[in-house]
């Protein structure tokens, strides 16, 4: 019996060992560990540290954000000041319909003591995506010669020759802006003076940008032809810098050339614009005016202050400008002058 029991025990042990070898390992501990998670895709190969993400060259970085913010603030301040002061640059490049009427009076050392009415209208036509404009203006040939401080322009005497009397012009202008930096325009029209009518043509191109923080530059080139003054061109460079959100400095260099006289009219202005409040702004300016013929020389130094006050809403302004002139024709003696201007301005912004 003892021998038989031993044989039976060895037989049962062999059967148990065979069952354990044929049973899958996952069958044990299923209730405790649960099923094994399934792998999705092949295992990645880990070869060294992960590669850094690829950043595009034109992606903004930590320096771009403050620079773009300051550039936007500067361009906005320049545009607002030009619009508030009725600057010619605003009307040359604005795509909005605009109407401007000025009544000027100049008193002082000059014998020209009368008032002068000037009008300009710039209306975009409902075709060509507002790129085609109708222009109406007084004295288009005189407007072609850029004067950065229009308030210095003096009225004409009634006894002057007919060629210098007030005239009116009507033209069609095509405007195109490229890449937010370039602005191009060309126009042709008719000038009406007395009973005569003569054609004229103009073309203008400008570039502007902010090459440095808080600095803004603008370069403009204008070519023109009028029967009264012939072929000519004007180059103007403005360099601007902000001192605060309300104070702007501008250095303006202008050169006008006429083919008939082969002469350059030169001008250098240093201006500071100070916006006092929503209704009032002041400009302080020092200027040197010169010519290249018969020799290059300065013909006048000017120091002025222009006080501009918004009389009514956003379309009626009053300018008061005391000026100190030092003209060569008077041996650079102090020659005071006072200029007054009432301006009525309408555009689509208001």
- What is the first-to-last residue Cα distance? 121 Å
The tally of domains stands at 1
User: Helical element count?
Assistant: 5
Binned, the helix content reads 10-25%
Strand count, sense and barrel status of the largest sheet are: 14 strands, antiparallel, barrel
- Quote the average pLDDT: 77
CATH superfamily: monomeric porin ompg
- Quickly give the structural class: alpha+beta
Give the C-level CATH assignment.
Mainly Beta
Radius of gyration: 39 Å
Strand order of the largest sheet: 1-2-3-4-5-6-7-8-9-10-11-12-13-14
Shape: globular
Task: Give the beta-strand count.
Answer: 14
Unreliable sequence segments: 25-34, 62-71, 148-163
Strand coverage percent: over 45%
* CATH level 3 topology: Porin
CATH architecture name: Beta Barrel
Order of helices and strands: HHHHEEEHEEEEEEEEEEE
What would your notes on this structure say?
This protein is α+β, with helices and mostly antiparallel strands and 350 residues long. The chain has a single domain (64-347), classed as Porin (Beta Barrel), CATH 2.40.160.40. Helix content is 16%, strand content 49%. It contains 5 helices and 14 strands. It has helices spanning 2-22, 30-33, 64-84, 88-93, 140-144; strands at residues 98-108, 115-124, 132-138, 168-178, 182-193, 196-212, 215-226, 230-242, 247-258, 263-275, 280-291, 297-312, 316-327, 335-347. The protein has a 14-stranded antiparallel barrel with strand order 1-2-3-4-5-6-7-8-9-10-11-12-13-14. A hairpin with a 6-residue loop joins strand 1 and strand 2 (115-124).
């Amino acid at each position: 019996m003892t021998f038989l029991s031993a044989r039976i025990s060895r037989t049962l042990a062999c059967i148990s060992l065979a069952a354990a070898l044929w049973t899958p390992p996952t069958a044990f501990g299923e209730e405790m560990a649960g099923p094994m998670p399934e792998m999705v895709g092949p295992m990645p190969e880990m070869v060294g540290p992960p590669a850094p993400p690829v950043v595009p060259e034109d992606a903004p970085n930590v320096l771009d954000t403050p620079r773009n913010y300051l550039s936007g603030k500067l361009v906005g301040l320049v545009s607002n000041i030009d619009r508030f002061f009725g600057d010619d640059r605003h009307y040359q490049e604005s795509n909005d319909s605009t109407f401007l009427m000025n009544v000027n009076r100049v008193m002082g050392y000059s014998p020209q003591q009368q008032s002068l009415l000037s009008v300009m209208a710039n209306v975009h036509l409902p075709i060509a995506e507002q790129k085609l404009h109708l222009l109406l203006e007084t004295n288009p040939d005189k407007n072609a010669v850029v004067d950065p401080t229009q308030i210095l322009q003096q009225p004409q005497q009634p006894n002057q020759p007919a060629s210098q009397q007030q005239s009116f012009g009507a033209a069609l202008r095509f405007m195109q802006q490229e890449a937010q930096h370039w602005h191009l325009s060309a126009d042709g029209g008719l000038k009406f003076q007395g009973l005569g009518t003569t054609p004229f043509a103009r073309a203008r191109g400008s570039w502007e940008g902010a090459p440095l923080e808080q600095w803004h530059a603008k370069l403009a080139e204008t070519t023109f032809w009028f029967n009264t003054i012939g072929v000519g061109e004007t180059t103007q460079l403005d360099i601007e810098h902000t001192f605060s959100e309300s104070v702007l400095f501008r250095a303006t260099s202008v050169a006008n050339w006429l083919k008939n006289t082969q002469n350059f009219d030169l001008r250098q202005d240093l201006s500071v614009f100070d916006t006092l409040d929503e209704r009032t702004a002041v400009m302080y300016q020092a200027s040197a005016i010169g010519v290249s013929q018969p020799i290059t020389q300065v013909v006048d130094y000017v120091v002025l202050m222009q006080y501009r006050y918004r009389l009514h809403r956003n379309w009626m302004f009053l300018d008061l400008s005391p000026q100190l002139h030092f003209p060569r024709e008077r041996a650079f003696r102090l020659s005071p002058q006072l200029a007054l201007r009432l301006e009525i301005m309408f555009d689509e912004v208001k």
